[in-house]
Amino acid sequence: MAAIYSLFIINKSGGLIFYKDYGSAGRMDTNDSLRVASLWHSMHAISQQLSPTLGCSGIELLEADTFDLHCFQSLTGTKFFVVCEPGTPHMESLLKVIYELYTDYVLKNPFYEMEMPIRCELFDSNLSQAIQKDRVALLGR
Amino acid sequence: MQFFSGSEISPSPPAPTASGNNAHMMYVFNRNGICLLYREWNRPLRTLSDHQDHKLMFGLLFSLKSLTAKMDPTSLKFHLFCLDLITSYSEVNGSTINCGPDLKMIMTFLAVFCSNYFIINMPSHHSMDKGNLGVPQLPGQGCSFHSFRTNTYKLSFMETPSGIKIILVTNPRTGDLREPLKYIYNLYVEHVVKNPLYTPGTPIK
């Protein structure tokens, strides 16, 4: 019973650079995940246009019947969003932790090209650790 | 928000909140995208003309619905997303005479983005058992979202099986608005639908 279903990272042009599935019933294939990511990128931008007041920075939380979607946008335009069970607490802090891992293990990697799909082992392993820790803390197992 | 104190209408009207300025705007759309009602109480910033604003709102909600149905982690997913997204966007685009440059840019951006991926992945017969992603779904079919929140506003959404969509844009600290939306829908049914002089599909006067 996973609290988090999946994690996506989108670069500033809307392309998917990282997708990890943590046990949802309907796994998406590569093309679908690409489409969903670029669609989310556009929705995020359109929601800023519809704001009744100034200073909108896009959708932070989308609540649906069977899942919640938390999104964090860094100052550079990179978006991290996580699909989780409705009502899961502390997703914003988890997203910030993931952002820190991203800066440490991806951006400081000299072989990583900006805006390209992420293929860094250290990032993957530390990310799994962070998610596991979060899962253990949440479910008390 | 103002609510009538109708005693015969169920559910009962929600208790008025302490502060007066909660809601920014309200939209009611029918299933064809016609805006039946638009009310605003507090809108300091207006980026587009009214007509474009309605179309943008309807388009955003339509695609968010498809997105949530697709992303639903507890059900089978469907393919063939882009074709219907493109056709429905072109319907919305083509149905108006004056379409501002911003809106056109956004719509074509979406259509091009999606069409690129669709062309790359022509659906095989194998993917048909997973179904269609983005086929215009019946209202109520598939997982639908009920609200989203940004740092400056919160949008609450309700769709009825007849395709009537009620949207409320409020401040971000608002709680769950599904009950008030149901109440508004009941008001709509009582006073608008049952009105013999009202033609369905025209804006509510």
Short overview:
Chain A: Belongs to the TRAPP small subunits family. TRAPPC4 subfamily. The complex is a heterodimer of chains A (141) and B (205). Chain A is an alpha+beta fold.
Helical content of chain B (DSSP H or I, runs of 4+): 25-40%
Content-based structural category of chain B = alpha+beta
- Which parts of chain A are unreliable, with pLDDT below 50 for 5 consecutive residues or more? none
Helix count from the secondary structure assignment of chain A: 3
Number of DSSP strands of chain B? 5
What string gives the helices and strands of chain B in order?
EEHHHEEEH
- Count interface residues per chain for the largest interface: A-B, 42 and 53 residues
Oligomeric assembly: heterodimer
- Mean of pLDDT of chain B: 70
- The chain-level structural class of chain A is alpha+beta
- Give the low-confidence spans of chain B: 1-13, 15-19, 77-84, 95-99, 116-132
Rg of chain A, Å, rounded: 15 Å
Summed up, the helix count of chain B is 4
Strand line-up of the largest beta sheet of chain B: 2-1-5-4-3
End-to-end gap of chain A: 11 Å
List the secondary-structure elements of chain A in sequence, H or E: EEHEEEHH
Could you say which overall geometry of chain B the principal axes of the C-alpha atoms support? globular
The main pleated sheet of chain B reads as: 5 strands, antiparallel
Tell me the β content of chain B.
Answer: 15-25%
Protein name (chain B): Trafficking protein particle complex subunit
Keywords (chain B): Endoplasmic reticulum, ER-Golgi transport, Golgi apparatus, Transport
Subunit structure (chain B): Part of the multisubunit transport protein particle (TRAPP) complex.
Family (chain B): Belongs to the TRAPP small subunits family. BET5 subfamily.
Q: What features would you describe in this structure?
A:
Chain A: Keywords: Endoplasmic reticulum, ER-Golgi transport, Golgi apparatus, Transport. The complex is a heterodimer of chains A (141) and B (205). By secondary structure, chain A is of the alpha+beta class. Helices cover 40% and strands 22% of the residues of chain A. The termini of chain A are close together. The model of chain A has no long low-confidence stretch (mean pLDDT 87). With 205 residues, chain B is an alpha+beta fold. The radius of gyration of chain B is 18 Å and the shape is globular. The model of chain B is unreliable at 1-13, 15-19, 77-84, 95-99 and 116-132 (pLDDT under 50). Chain B has a 5-stranded antiparallel beta sheet with strand order 2-1-5-4-3, with helices on both faces. The chains are: A alpha+beta (141), B alpha+beta (205). At the A-B interface, helix 1 and strand 3 of A face helix 1, helix 3 and strand 3 of B.
